[in-house]
Specification:
This protein has 410 residues and is an alpha+beta fold. The chain is built from 17 helices and 12 strands.
C-alpha cells in the first residue's frame, strides 16, 4: 500500500476490498493504532476500533450489542429493515447465539451448554484424532496436494457432522452451505452474495428440520438428540432455536478452524526457523496454536451496535452507530503484546481475542483447539518434510480471511 503514514485518510489505510490489503493488513493496522483509538470509516459508516484494550473492553460492554432488536425497532434505531427477500437468512441467523442478546441469549446459551458440555468435547477427541490421521495419511500417500481442500476444510466439517449425526453421504452439502451463508458477514455484501446466502439458509434449514424430526422419533447419542432433550425448569429450545444453533455450530465452528489451519501453515512456511523449531519440539504445539491464531487472526473484524451513547477517547459515539472491532489489529497491539509483529511459538502471555470475549465468547473454542492440535500435530509427525509449492492467493473477503489453497509437496 502506497501511503501508511498515521495521518493518511482512514479510507486510504483501511481498504478491505483491496486484495493487497487483505493479503497483509497489519502495517495499515499499525498506522491506525498510531493515529488514535477510534476512526470514522465512511464507506461502511462504521467506527473502527483498533486497540486491544478498547476491543477487549467493548466486547464486554453491555451498552453494545450484536443486535438491537431486543430493545428497539428498526425505525426507532434509525435503521432500515432488511429486504423481505433476505428473510430466510435472517430467520436462521437471528435465532442463533451469535446475534442474540439477553435475555434470549442467556436462556439459549444455558440450554445449549447442557447439551454441548466439556464431556462432549472429551468424547469427540478420539474421533477428531482419527479423522485428522485419515486425512493426513491420504495427503501423504498422494505425495502432497492442496492443504486447504485435503485437510483444513474437511476436518472441522467432518467433526461437526459427527456431532450432529449427519450421514456421511450428506456431508458434502455442508461446506458449500456454510460458505454461502458466511458471505453475508462480509462488509457490504453484494446482491449476488445475499441471494446465495438466502438459498443456502433455506436449504440448510429444511435439511436440519428433517434431521431434528428423525431424532425426535429415534434419539441417538448425537448433539441434535441432546439439544432436543435439553431443558431447564421446564424450558426447552424451540425448533427454530435448534436449527439456528446447529447452523451456527457449522458456520462458526469450522470457518475459523479452516483459516487458522491454512493461514497458520502459510505463516510457518514464511518463518522457516520457527517451523524447524516446532518440528524439533512438538511440545511447543499448544502455545504455537495460540500464537498462530494471534499472529494472523482468522476472523478479522466483529461488529457491535451502540445501544446507548458511549465515549472513546473524547469521541462521543451516539446510539444507533455501529462499531467495527478490529480483532486482527488488536492482536498485534504493542501496548499489550511484547514484540507483536514477531512470531513467538513459545509465547506464554498471549491474551489474544480470536475467540471473542464476554457473553459471546466462542462456545466451540475448546473443540477448535482440539481440532487444531490434532491436524497440526498429525502433519508435524507424518509429513515432517512438507514444503510449499507456490505462494497462495487470498479468497475475496476480509472479515473471514483465508487463502484459496495451500499447495504442498512432501
Amino acid at each position: 500500500m502506497e501511503d501508511l503514514a498515521p495521518d493518511s485518510p482512514v479510507d486510504r489505510l483501511f481498504r478491505p476490498q483491496d486484495p493487497a490489503f487483505a493479503a497483509d493488513p497489519y502495517p495499515a493496522f499499525a498506522a491506525l493504532r498510531e493515529r488514535g483509538r477510534v476512526h470514522w470509516y465512511e464507506p461502511t459508516r462504521q467506527y473502527l476500533v483498533p486497540h486491544h484494550a478498547d476491543v477487549s473492553a467493548l466486547l464486554r460492554d453491555r451498552r453494545l450489542g450484536r443486535t438491537y432488536l431486543h430493545r428497539f425497532g428498526h425505525e426507532d434505531f434509525g435503521r432500515t429493515a432488511p429486504p423481505a427477500a433476505h428473510e430466510p437468512f435472517h430467520t436462521l441467523n437471528d435465532h442463533g447465539l451469535l446475534d442474540l442478546e439477553a435475555p434470549d441469549h442467556t436462556r439459549i446459551r444455558r440450554l445449549v451448554t447442557k447439551a454441548f458440555t466439556p464431556g462432549t468435547v472429551r468424547e469427540l477427541e478420539p474421533v477428531v484424532r482419527r479423522l485428522a490421521a485419515e486425512l493426513v495419511a491420504a495427503l501423504v500417500k498422494a505425495g502432497g496436494g492442496d492443504l486447504v481442500a485435503e485437510v483444513a476444510e474437511p476436518l472441522p466439517v467432518a467433526v461437526i457432522a459427527e456431532m450432529l449425526g449427519v450421514p456421511e453421504s450428506d456431508r458434502p452439502l455442508l461446506r458449500p452451505w456454510s460458505a454461502d451463508i458466511c458471505g453475508m458477514y462480509e462488509l457490504n455484501p453484494s446482491q449476488e452474495t445475499a441471494a446465495r446466502a438466502v438459498r443456502a439458509s433455506t436449504e440448510f434449514s429444511a435439511y436440519l428440520r428433517e434431521l431434528i424430526a428423525r431424532r425426535r422419533d429415534d434419539p441417538g447419542d448425537d448433539l441434535v438428540s441432546a439439544l432436543i432433550a435439553a431443558h431447564d425448569e421446564g424450558d426447552r429450545l424451540s425448533e427454530q432455536e435448534m436449527v439456528s444453533t446447529c447452523a451456527l455450530l457449522l458456520n462458526a465452528g469450522h470457518e475459523a478452524t479452516v483459516n487458522t489451519t491454512a493461514n497458520g501453515w502459510w505463516t510457518l512456511f514464511r518463518h522457516p526457523d520457527r517451523l524447524a523449531a516446532l518440528r524439533a519440539d512438538h511440545s511447543l504445539l499448544p502455545t504455537a496454536v495460540e500464537e498462530l491464531m494471534r499472529f494472523d487472526t482468522p476472523l478479522q473484524l466483529f461488529e457491535r451496535w451502540v445501544l446507548d451513547d458511549i465515549e472513546i477517547d473524547g469521541t462521543v459515539i451516539p446510539r444507533g452507530s455501529e462499531l467495527a472491532l478490529l480483532f486482527g489489529s488488536a492482536n498485534r497491539d504493542g501496548a499489550r503484546f511484547e514484540r507483536p509483529d514477531e512470531l513467538d511459538l513459545a509465547r506464554a502471555d498471549n491474551p489474544h481475542i480470536s475467540f471473542g470475549a464476554g457473553i459471546h465468547y466462542c462456545l466451540g473454542a475448546p473443540l477448535a483447539r482440539v481440532e487444531l492440535g490434532a491436524s497440526f500435530g498429525e502433519l508435524l509427525r507424518e509429513a515432517p518434510g512438507m514444503r510449499l509449492v507456490a505462494e497462495p492467493e487470498w479468497k475475496p473477503g476480509f472479515v473471514i480471511r483465508g487463502v484459496r489453497e495451500l499447495c504442498v509437496e512432501l
